[in-house]
């Protein structure tokens, strides 16, 4: 029998409405300023591309790729920069755009690393947050949704590279509380 791996946690309509709301807040908060959005590859790509179209501001985008060591589904807490920014952020208003904050370790590392480059301001915007998993205090200015401690996919967010193209955000719910291996997920189920 096929394990039940899909449950829509947030529909594309929920997400759309929230992204518009965050876009309006950012527009208000940064009025009169030029903003640099820093998207964290690869999960934040879908969120960033929707969000930026709700900003009524002069804005630019750049990307970074950060990886925690290991390919399992729990964060190891050790981050390394795989792809750095192209822009010099000194004196710029920078907003980090992330898909999901789990322990907070990745962003906390990234924040420290970007602060050293002396931006005019540095804030964080995350579509999802799992507060129950936080290991480090992190000031997140914009949060779309707080989600329970479940592994989620869709709207840019992946499991081992898969499922980023789903419009809704799903919780992976394997039977028996164990996460099945990728081939099971890649069934017709999603
Ligand atoms: P953190 O350092 O523990 O906050 O890890 C954040 C990163 O872990 C995110 O950028 C995601 O890439 C990944 N991550 C955390 N939770 C999930 C999840 O539920 N689904 C997919 N990726 C996740
Ligand atoms: Mg990520």
What would your notes on this structure say?
- By secondary structure, this protein is an alpha/beta fold.
- It has one domain (5-187): Rossmann fold, CATH 3.40.50.
- Helix content is 21%, strand content 28%.
- It is built from 4 helices and 9 strands, in the order E-H-E-H-E-E-E-H-E-E-E-E-H.
- It has helices at residues 12-29, 45-51, 105-115, 182-185; strands at 8-10, 35-41, 59-68, 79-83, 93-101, 121-129, 142-146, 152-153, 169-171.
- The protein has a 6-stranded mixed β-sheet, with helices on both faces.
- The longest helix is centred in the first third of the chain and has 18 residues, at 12-29.
- The radius of gyration is 17 Å and the shape is globular.
- The mean pLDDT is 88.
- Magnesium ion binds next to loops.
- The site of inosinic acid (IMP) has 14 residues, from strand 5 and helix 3.
Protein topology:
Layout: E1 8-10, H1 12-29, E2 35-41, H2 45-51, E3 59-68, E4 79-83, E5 93-101, H3 105-115, E6 121-129, E7 142-146, E8 152-153, E9 169-171, H4 182-185
Parallel strand pairs: 2-3, 2-5, 5-6, 6-7
Antiparallel strand pairs: 1-9, 3-4, 8-9
The chain binds inosinic acid and magnesium ion.
């Amino acid at each position: 029998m096929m394990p039940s791996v899909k449950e829509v946690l947030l529909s594309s309509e929920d997400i759309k409405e929230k992204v518009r709301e965050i876009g309006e807040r950012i527009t208000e908060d940064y009025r009169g300023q030029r903003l640099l959005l820093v998207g964290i590859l690869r999960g934040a790509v879908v969120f960033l591309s929707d969000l930026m179209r709700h900003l009524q501001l002069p804005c630019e985008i750049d990307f970074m790729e950060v990886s925690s060591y290991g390919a399992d589904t729990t964060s190891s807490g050790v981050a390394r920069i795989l792809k750095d920014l192209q822009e010099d952020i000194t004196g710029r208003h920078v907003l980090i755009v992330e898909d999901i904050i789990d322990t907070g370790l990745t962003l906390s590392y990234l924040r420290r690393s970007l602060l050293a480059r002396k931006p005019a301001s540095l804030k964080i915007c995350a579509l999802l947050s799992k507060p129950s998993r936080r290991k480090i205090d992190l000031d997140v200015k914009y949060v779309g949704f707080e989600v329970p401690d479940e592994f989620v996919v869709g709207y840019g967010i992946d499991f081992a590279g898969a499922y980023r193209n789903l419009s809704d955000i799903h919780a992976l719910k394997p039977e028996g509380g164990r996460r099945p291996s990728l081939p099971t997920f890649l069934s017709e189920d999603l």
